[in-house]
Amino acid sequence: MMVTKRRQPLPLAVLSTGFVLLWVFMAAFPFIWTVWGSFKVEQDFFSRDSWWFAIEGTRTIARTGSAFTGDGYYGAWVLRDFFSSVINTVIVTVSVVVVSLTFGTLGGYALARSGYRYTFWLLMLALVFRAMPHITLVSGYLLPFFEMNIWGYMPTAIIVLVAINQPFTLWMLHSFFLSIPKDLDESAMVDGCSRFQAFRLVVIPVMWPGVITTGLFSFLLAYNDFAVTAMLLSQPNQTMVPKIASFLGTVQQEGNVMFAVAAVVSATAPLFVLVLFFQRQIVSGLTAGAVKG
Amino acid sequence: MPHRAFFAFIMPSLAAMLLFIALPIVSVAVQSLYVQHERVVTEVETCTPFSGCTKETRVDAEATEKLRNDEPLGRFNGFGTYLDRNHLAVTEIGAILSDNAGFKDTVARVYNLPFYRALAFTLTYTFVVTPFAMLLGFCIALGVNAIPPFYKGPVIFFSLLPMIVTPLVGALIVYWMASSQGILGATLQVLLNDPTLSLKSSAVLTWITLLVYGIWHNAPFSFVVFYAGLQTVPHDTLESAMIDGASRWERIRFVVIPHLMPLATFVGLVQLMDNFRVFEPIVGFSAEANATSLSWSIFNDLRGQVDQLFGSAAATSMLTIVGVIILLSPVLVRTWRDFNRR
């Protein structure tokens, strides 16, 4: 604990607490407001008269008889088939996480255990790859994928996301495996295990904390991606984020912005749950990269 | 680890990266040298008994289609695409430089060229959002560090939300609130007493909204890293600074900040890389009329309803990659030096 904390003079304490409160409000309020508003009709959430309508739900009561309505959710999930894009998202994110962790643990382990010079260059190369904007890579994929006739399918998008994810996964797991003592797998090899057996029997059982943390970030990348999924998936294979983007164009003209609001809230909910349960891992993952990198 | 075992372990990962990151870069480089075929035009002579014969040109749709199918890359154009009006605009820049009415006019006319317009916003976003988000994150970290431990968990929970949320979704949430019928936009109208005020109407306001959104979105990352760093500030150094009579500010300035400097470099580097590819906020805020970015230009070329402009997108991509490498070069050079010293 910092020493400064104990003897903070009152004005400074008030100022710093006030600042933290203000920040928490700024960080949380947009989400609370949108979740609340998603249960109103459009004339309330986007009120021309006063935003107080969104709190009381004046028009919502007038239109539906109750202060809350699930119309937006019904419209998005049932009428506009948001449901199928949710299923697609589950398929894509789960596959991306599983495959990129498999590739990443193998690669990260190798990088952490090899003492040769080229590991350094591979890590540097990964850093450069990590910096490539995703959309520039997408512009490289499109034409070849059209020609090979593999555009629009989920496996294509999955393997692309896995590849884009690799640099980060490699860096994270590399630094994690460095923290597992070398002696552990070397003594297993002295006892007669092959390199792969040592990895499977000795390293895998102790690697889960690092793998879970890395997996969270792989999940976030796959879940939050827009550039790749929007450009590489055909309409029926779309995941949630491009689906929301496609809502915007069509829905705004029909006056059903609330569909999009409901879809946005639906897409944010899993992230809330994720942060709720894995806050510690996310924080440690963010800092692990920083402290070691 | 012997070479063989090493490559066996890293093969899947390396193959994925080479196939889907390195090869696409090559593909982009090749594509940028080509442009799509022009339409095949045929001359048709129609003769009528009274008015004689007229020649007219028609687009031969069938032949065009066939040509495009046979050679999907298009025709070779060399560096033509790089130099045209939509990219580096060499002739236009030359004309502007040789004939202009002062500095302001030059800037305004250069800004009207699509590539420079996108570049201007991308660079502004990168170099405004990164430092401000880091500063805000640092202040939050200092603040959170001083509150009772019981409240830290919930505060960190809410602080993570702006960062963890899908960028497009986060942008939409803020956009809806900031629209003139949303709570923020309406409140601003009342506060500034201007009922026609709309954040979308002027370029300046759109830029400010996007920058504020960027800071909101990026601050939590710096906060988390700096907060973790604050836990490791050496107690003894702080105490001896106090004994030497350092004020609270001086302790932060001369003990805490130097201690966090390596972390700040790391955060800065990651943020620069991420902010340089700013893209989703522009889609979310529908801000393309007033602000475009390099990533957005590529997206826009690829999304074209009639023709996807692969060549144009590829040229912008190559220029973006050059930008990324310039941004990264200080780090790469430094790492190279460190590595050689070892």
From TrEMBL, chain A:
Localization terms from the record: Cell membrane
Keyword set, alphabetical order: Cell membrane, Membrane, Transmembrane, Transmembrane helix, Transport
Superkingdom of source: Bacteria
Transmembrane intervals: 12-36, 82-106, 118-144, 150-177, 198-223, 257-278
Gene Ontology CC terms: plasma membrane
Domain ABC transmembrane type-1: 86-276
GO biological processes: transmembrane transport
Membrane topology: Multi-pass membrane protein
Family, per entry: Belongs to the binding-protein-dependent transport system permease family.
Protein's recorded name: Carbohydrate ABC transporter membrane protein 2 (CUT1 family)
UniProtKB/TrEMBL annotation, chain B:
GO cellular component: plasma membrane
Matches recorded under InterPro entries: ABC_transporter_permease, MetI-like, MetI-like_sf
Segments forming domain ABC transmembrane type-1: 119-331
Primary site of residence: membrane
Superkingdom of the source species: Bacteria
Transmembrane segments: 7-30, 118-143, 155-178, 204-230, 251-273, 309-333
Pfam families: BPD_transp_1
Coiled-coil intervals, chain numbering: none
Subcellular location: Cell membrane
UniProt KW keywords: Cell membrane, Membrane, Transmembrane, Transmembrane helix, Transport
GO biological process: transmembrane transport
PANTHER family: ABC TRANSPORTER PERMEASE PROTEIN, INNER MEMBRANE ABC TRANSPORTER PERMEASE PROTEIN YCJO
Family per record: Belongs to the binding-protein-dependent transport system permease family.
Protein name: Carbohydrate ABC transporter membrane protein 1 (CUT1 family)
Source species: Shinella granuli
